[in-house]
Structures are given as structure tokens and as C-alpha cells.
User: What shape does this take?
Amino acid sequence: MSDSSSTPPNLPLVRGGAVGGGVDPYQPFHEIVSVLTWANPGLTKLESQMLIPLFGEHPVEMGMVGKEQEILTMLQSDRTYKQLFAAAFPGKDSISIANLAKAIAAFERTLISVNSPYDRYRYGGDVNAISAAAKRGEALFNSERLECFHCHGGINFSDSVMHERLAFKEIAFHNTGLYNIDGKGAYPSSNTGVRELTNKPSDMGRFKAPTLRNIALTAPYMHDGSIATLEEVIDHYQAGGRTIHTGKFAGVGSTNPFKSQFI
Assistant: This one.
């Protein structure tokens, strides 16, 4: 089991797929993301985030909890890793879990998706890089009529991006009206968003807005992979929330009392 098994290097930087792909390949995707990156206000650094899939037990992903010494022994017995860790982290204990997290986080920071046709159009001055239809779409995307840019703005198309030039750091979370199981705003019990950590009713169903980069390649969509296509995502937002007519998740999402004002 490795990180590349869930995010292969030949695929987009954002992983698609409707199942978890961890130690239990049939674990529903929403059980993987509910309290991890997409709904945890306390996770603001890659070094902290990457420890959760590695050692987390709720849910189990990489299944390495209790095997910390095995990981260190494996790295110490590899001549190449021993030399690289010593060079990167001079000192007596260069190979440690903390330094392992720093090394993986450093690699993750190099995974930058840029120079798309839109980048060349918007930032490179190439007026022919995107089609006339795409330009009309950009105008709608950035309009107060559709409100898309409020949650998916900036160079990474997300309001949860931090960098050193920000005046202040804020990580936003949103309820998009994806569920309304009991008519009072409920989401699936294993997938309640920020509320799972804060226990505040108003945090029900609140998740980060993901980047839209490579979005056409990362189906299915929404935090739990419950919408299959981009066309259906647009339908969801156009309706102001999703209506599920039958089954245990039935409800009218557009009337969710905790829904974001932008939906």
C-alpha cells in the first residue's frame, strides 16, 4: 500500500473514484473524507494532514498505526533513503516519523497544476487560448447571478487556499444543500462535515470547496462522490440543492436550513 495507489502519478492531482481505495477497498468514499481534509478546520499544514491517512483509525486508510517502528526500520535499512534523510535532516535522528512527514509534504508542494489553456488566456495574455463559449462561461462563473466565484475563486478556484501574501488566513466551509434527510438539515450520520468535530448544529454538512483544476478528469463529484457527472453538478446548483426522491437519504436539499447563502 502506497500513496501512489490512491493518487497514481499518471492521473490528475485530485483523486477521483467513488470508493476509498484504502486498506478496505470497498469502504465508501464519504467515510474516508468526512473528518479528514475536507471537513477539519484544524488541518492547515500538509505535514499534519498526511499523518491521518497513514496512521488514522477512523477510518483506516494506509493501516500503519502501530507499525511506526517497522516504517523507520525499513527506511534505515535502505542505503539510499539513509543517505537522503541524512542530507535533508542533518543530526542524530534524521530518520523519524516527523521528518518522513516533512519529506512527503515537500514533495506534495511540488504538485502544481498550471499552464492550462485558461492560465494562458487569463494570465499569459493569449486571447485565443480558450473558446468563445469558455469566455462566456467565465463571465457567468464570475457573475453575481451565479455566485460561483465566491467559493471557487482565485488561481486555484477554491476559497480554501493559503499563501504568504494573504492579508489573513481563513479556511471556509460550505453546506451546498446536497442532503436534507429529516427536513431539518441532516446529512448521512457518517458524513456530517465540520459538525462531526464541533458538534454545532449549524456546522452540519459544511465542507471545503475543492479546487476546480483538472475537474473534468476527477469524477465522481461532491465531497462524497455522490454525483456522477459535471452536468449533474450544474443541475444540483441550478436547483439550489439536490432532491433525492426515495431511499434512506431522501429529502429536498434546496430547503436545507444550513445551506450556504450562495447556493
User: Anything to note?
Assistant: The longest strand covers residues 243-244. DSSP finds twelve helices and two strands in the chain. The beta strands are 243-244, 251-252.
